[in-house]
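Cont'd.
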Amino acid sequence: MRIELENVRHVYAPGTPFEVEALRGVSLAIEPEEVLGIVGGTGSGKSTLVQHLNLLLVPTSGRVLVDGADVRTIRGRELRGRVGLVFQFPEAALFAPTVEEDVAFAPRRLGLSEGEVHRRVGETLGLLGASHLAGRSPFALSGGEKRRVAIAGVLAMAPEVLVLDEPTAGLDPATREDLLGVVRALREEGTSVVMVSHDLDEVAEVADRVCVLENGEVRAVGAPEEVFYAHPTTAPSTVRVVRPLRGPHPEVGRPVRFEETLAALKGLLEGRV
Amino acid sequence: MNNRNHEGSRHGGPPVVSCENVSFSYLDSGRPALGEISLEVRAGEYVGVVGPNGGGKSTLLRLMNGLLRADSGDVRVAGFDPAAEPFEVRKRVGMLFQNPENGLVAPFVEDDIAFGLENVGVSREEMRERVRKAVRAVGLDGYEQREPHTLSGGEKQRVALAGLLALDPEVLLLDEPTSMLDAAGRRGVLERLEALRGARTVVHVTHHLDELLDADRVLVLGAGRLVADVSPERLVSDPDLLRDNRLVLPTALRLAAELGLGPAKLRTPEDLAEAIVEKSGARAR
C-alpha cells in the first residue's frame, strides 16, 4: 500500500478565536515496506499528520491518496483495518477483562471467523513477547506490558501500514529495544511502519527514511544520513558525536545507527581508516 | 544486597520523605509491587528513581502522595502519613503524572495552571503573577487561552509542569516529566528543575539516565525491591548493575564505554566528540 499526502492543510477550529493551523501544506509519500520516521518538536504537527492516514482527520484542503484513490472515496472502517493507528499512551483505551479479549476486539469487528481471530491474537501476542499475559487483566499489568497489549490490539487487524505515535514514551530502555525489534520484524514481513517520535536516537536505529516537521511544514525528508547530517538541530546522538569529527577526519563517513557509528569511531581511533 | 550499592544519603537536611519496610500489592497481581522498601529523602535533595517497567517506581510515588495506602510499613512525608492525611501532604507535595492527559482539568491553559493555586487560598493577584511566571518558565507564552485538548502531548506535559511550578510545593514528585518532550523541551524542563536544586526536594522518576547525571543520588527499583541507592557516577560505571535492571546508558555514554573512554566524565555527545579528537590527535602525533 502506498499513501500519498498532497499539499495537506489542517486547521483546528476554523473561523473561531481558537483557530490553529496545524499543517500548512504537507506533501509526503509513505512507500510500501518502509519504516518512515516522523520527527519534529512538540506541536510541529506530527500527531495531526498521522491522523490523516486513516481518516480520523480529513484535510481542510489538499488530498490523501491510498494507492492513487482519494481516501474520501474509501469507507473509514475498511481503511482503518488496513492502516492501523496506535495512539500516544494507547493503554488508556484498554477495556476488556482479559488481555486475550482486548486484543481480539478489533479483528472480531472486522468480521473474521472465531478461529482466525484466535489465531491472530495468539500470533500477535507472540510477536510482542506477551503470550504469557493472555489470561491476565490488562489493568493489573505494568506500563510496558500494557503498551505491548495495546499495540497488539491494533496489530491483530493485520494492517498493511502500522502507524505508531510516540510508541516508546514511558518505556524502559530494554522494553524500548524490544519494541524497535518488533518494528524491524514487521518491516521484514512487508508491513510499512510510520513511527512518530521525539526521540531521534531511536528513529536513527530503525528508519529507512526520515521526515522532519517544523511548524506544520516538511522541513526535510530523505535517507537518515542525508537528513541528519544536513540539519544539525535535528541530529541523533550518534550524528552529534561524528559531525564535529568530519572536519579533521572526513574518512569517518556518515554513520547513523549505533553499530555502524561504533565501528567508524573504532576505526578512527585505531587509525584503520 | 551488598554495601557498595547502598551509599545512602549524604545530604545534611532533615528527612522529608521516609519509607520504612513499606509493602504494597495491587489486587489481581501475583507478586507485591513493592516489598519491604526502606528509604529516606532529605530536604533539598535531588533524588533520581530508575528501574524497569513494573519495578515499582510509579507505585512508590503514589504511596508518597497518598493515592495508594501501604499494606504494611510506614510512609512519612513532611511529617504526615499521606494515606491518613492526604490533604496535609498535598499542600506540601506536588505530583506530575506520567501521562499528562491524567492531570489536565480546566477549559483553558491558564485556568489549568491556576487550578492548584485555587485550592490553597492564594490571592487573585498573586495567582496571576505565579501563573505568568510558570507559563514563561516552561516556554508556553501565547498559549494562555488555548484549550488543553488542542495541544500536543509535549505541550500538555509542559502545562502540567507549569501548574506544579506555580504551586511551588516543598517536594516535587515527578513521574517521567519529559517523556513526551523533544530534546530542546527536555533541556528547558531540566534547567527549570536544576534552578530549584537545594531550595526544594525533588524525586524524579525517569528512563533517561542522562537526566540524572547531576542528581545527588539514584535509587534503582527492580521487581518491587530497592536494588541500589548510589551516586549517578557509580551507576553509569557499573555495567552489571545496569544490565541486571534493564537500564541502558544514553547513546553517547554507551559509545564512550565501548570505545574505552570512560562514561563517567562525559555528559553530551559533543563531550565525546571532543574526547575523540583529543585521542586521535595524540595518536597522529
